[in-house]
Amino acid sequence: MKALSIICYFSIFLPIVVAGQAPDTAALHAERLLQGYAEVYGFSGTIKMVKGGAPFFEGSYGFADRSFGVPNTAGTRFSINSISKTFTAAAVLLLAKEGKADLYAPISRYLPELQATWRDSVTLHHLLCHSSGLPREPGVQVCDERSLAEQAEQLVAPQRLLFPPGEKYSYSNSGFILLGAALEAIAGQPYDVYIEKHILGPIGLGDTGFYRGRAVVQKQATPYRLSPQGLAFTERSKHYGENAGGGMYSTVSDLYRYARSMARHEILGALWGQRLFTPYFQTGETDREGYGWSLKDIGGKTYYFSAGSGYGTKSVILYEPLQDDFIGITSNWGNTPILPMLRGLFLTLQGGQPEPPQKSQLAKPARYLHALGEYRFPKGELQRHLGTDTDSLTLQAFEGKLFLNEELLAQKADGLLGLTYTEELLIRATEGQIILQINGFTITGERVGP
What we know:
Layout: H1 23-41, E1 45-51, E2 54-61, E3 63-65, E4 70-71, E5 78-79, H2 84-97, H3 124-128, H4 148-156, H5 173-187, H6 191-203, E6 209-210, E7 224-227, E8 230-233, E9 248-250, H7 252-263, H8 269-276, E10 281-282, E11 287-289, E12 294-298, E13 301-309, E14 314-320, E15 325-331, H9 338-349, E16 373-376, H10 381-386, E17 392-398, E18 401-404, E19 407-411, E20 417-419, E21 425-429, E22 433-438, E23 441-449
Antiparallel strand pairs: 1-2, 1-15, 3-4, 5-9, 6-9, 7-8, 10-11, 11-12, 12-13, 13-14, 14-15, 16-17, 16-23, 17-18, 18-19, 19-20, 20-21, 21-22, 22-23
Helix pairs in contact: 1-9, 2-5, 2-6, 2-8, 4-5
């Protein structure tokens, strides 16, 4: 079941003025912050922070394998999901540098068998900067084991464009399927083999690689999430087939080496490397989009940003090239509030002292034992207001905390429940009903089971 999705528009990074601190003191504030996220949200994963090219903080939390109590370590490999797109973008630019690909040629030049009405109007450039007009998702299923070429022909080609290519930015996983298929056609070798040989190997990323079907990956953290039946392990990637938009794993140390190498143009050279981080679209007051990377303007500096999210995984990297500052988070717990975590760590890197989350804000399951269970809502209402793909939600307790599906609940005023990071959704739980108040709308779910 798709996780409950509340869309909140807010700036991850707010302008601040902070006093300088000794590095050891600042690192202690980072450790205190992360301990709060571990205690309140159950954070499980690894953090790496670098300031001025020097180690600032590194720590691991939770378990790589909960069944056997195997802890996460700095060497644990995690799914990086959509951060994989930055590797695909770099590989396509490398082919362009070698004169094998023209970024402004139509996709039909490289995939002539593609039976799509837009095959002569969508270019590699459009795909790289998410301006092709293709829908976000291709409809691939978890059990699919299709090749990139099969995905392109069977899933992407039938899709209709949502707008003319180049008109605006609109994130598209479908587009990166085409990039992966085109890369293979141009390079004359498998997508993963090309990137291993030309990017991973030269940079020395020994803990970074590709998922290949169901093949075992050594030192891999098992992803976990909450299901209506309680804690569950889940897929490490969104499907078993080739995945140019999200099928890689890595460690935070490898991701730091990778981000630094890309920023220094070690693989692509200055002319082509700069194109990765050239802003092609403005997507927010301080946000712009390059090829596979986002650019965030904070305090007069430009940071390179990429993030990924899977069924039970979260990952994010933030790199400032002039000072060689870096923050990387990898997690194998689906309930990780990764962007608020990133903001807090960013503040500590700047010398701030953000307050860690407190358990006192959380709802106490003992008060709601009478209301635990599954609730069914009128058909389509949850999809319309919360973005879920079913008509039911489950109120459940786990590790002494209260959750609605996978969302951790906080105690609000007047006996109401809500999410920990927004006031948009308020919840009243009774023995037979759950009443949701969101953006001026009220919807009621009836209890159908324990």
